[in-house]
Design goal:
By secondary structure, the protein is an alpha+beta fold. The chain has one domain: Glycoprotein, Type 4 Pilin. The protein is built from six helices and seven strands, in the order αββααβββααββα. The protein has helices at about 1-15, 65-75, 85, 130-135, 140-150, 180-189; strands at about 30-40, 45-55, 90-100, 115-120, 125, 155-165, 175. Strands 1, 2, 3, 4, 5, 6 and 7 form a seven-stranded antiparallel sheet that branches. A hairpin with a 2-residue loop joins strand 4 and strand 5. Helix 1 crosses helix 2.
Length: about 190
């Protein structure tokens, strides 16, 4: 799935037709987000810097076609994004399922596994678990963030995720287990 997203971006950047999806991805129905993080080296250290993320909580066709279309659209949505930039970046794919209305009760929210989808008037936006952890949006901070993005009074939904990403650019792909994060463990205490 991650390599299919990367290949789809390469094809789009080269002006080629999108690649055929792997058989294993056909027929599967998930929402999906594709995220690209650039590797930045500074002072002898490496860190990841999010270049952007694009996706949908609603399946459009099947996972194979959706990953290809979203990845291709993402590749051309970033100004001056090139194949060289992609080779120095890691690709992450987040699967979304189980979208359901949510009353905002934080006691049953699975930090690191669940994200939030918001409908606020004409605005629709998503807060992925990665964003929650990176910005430390725990407890009431999550609601303040949602209000700052779309205003108060939006309709809330939550969803479950599975996140797969490259350890290194074009390298091994593993499942990201955010719920094991020390940041979450500190918040839960």
């Amino acid at each position: 799935m991650v390599s299919h997203a990367r290949l789809s971006m390469v094809h789009k950047l080269r002006g080629l037709a999108l690649p055929e999806p792997p058989e294993a991805l056909l027929g599967l129905k998930y929402g999906v987000f594709v995220t690209v993080e650039g590797i930045v080296r500074s002072g002898g250290y490496e860190r990841r810097e999010v270049r952007g993320s694009l996706g949908t909580v609603f399946p459009m066709q099947d996972l194979g076609h959706d990953v290809a279309r979203i990845a291709a659209r993402f590749a051309v949505s970033i100004p001056r994004f090139t194949e060289f930039d992609l080779r120095r970046s890691v690709v992450e794919v987040t699967l979304v399922e189980g979208l359901s209305e949510w009353d905002g009760d934080l006691s049953n929210f699975a930090w690191g596994r669940e994200g939030v989808y918001v409908e606020a008037g004409e605005r629709r936006f998503v807060v992925l678990p990665q964003t929650i952890i990176e910005r430390r949006l725990f407890g009431e901070a999550l609601f303040r963030y949602v209000e700052s993005m779309g205003g108060a009074g939006g309709k809330l939904y939550k969803f479950s995720t599975r996140i797969f990403y490259e350890v290194r650019p074009e390298g091994e792909v593993i499942e990201r287990e955010l719920w094991k994060s020390r940041v979450i463990k500190q918040f839960v205490r």
